[in-house]
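Table S2 (continued). Query chain:
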Amino acid sequence: MEALLRKEVALRVLSAVVMIPLALSSFYMGGVVFHCVVLALACVMALEWSSVASIQQQRPVSPLVFSVTLILALYSSQWDVGILSWPFILGFLLISSPPNRRFVMLMGFCYITVPAMGLISIRNVEGEGFLLLVNFFLIVWATDIGAYVGGKCIGGPRLWVRVSPHKTRSGALSGVISAMIISGIMYSVGYGFWTLLVWSPMIAIAAICGDLLESFFKRFYGQKDASTFIPGHGGVLDRVDGVVLAAPLMWLLVKIGAL
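Corresponding output:
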């Protein structure tokens, strides 16, 4: 058992060592490269969503249609008039979905498309997009790590037993504090934004809520992981759950000039 645990931890670390440089490289390059990475991940998430919600078994072509509609929606969102095509895209998605899974497909569309649009919009901020994106992901990762370590070391009352029995209130608080600390460090070394010191707790809370939302979805359908796409981490949905609500919030803060 102990050897198996060590092997799993080693696999998680190895996957992280590979993924983090690739992620940072795409952040830095921006433009078409970053857009393609986001689109590719969105397609994988669409396949995972279809699998977890048992849509693929009912209508095998649905995941492919789901992926195509996501690409069209994200591509069209780069232009103001492109958003007008969304009713037709959504109509196409709903018509091609199993009748008893249309609401789930619509929910999945929003669950994947909105944060993906948020990430692309954050990176597109003139002059500061790269740093904003790096700071954002550092906050999300710090929240995730802080919550895990805090929960393991401190323990205490559970955060929401029915949805995620292993998450604790002490872990959630540790995650928020970790987000504030990493924001302070980035600002102190000249690569952060003082406004993030104020908003980082909200972004951290959004990341925690996104994690709980993903846990609720998987528990509802009786799934442990969305897939085995990332060795040691599960699926892309499992790995980016903290981004789902935090990215739109970060995007909103940028749009209203709070960052």
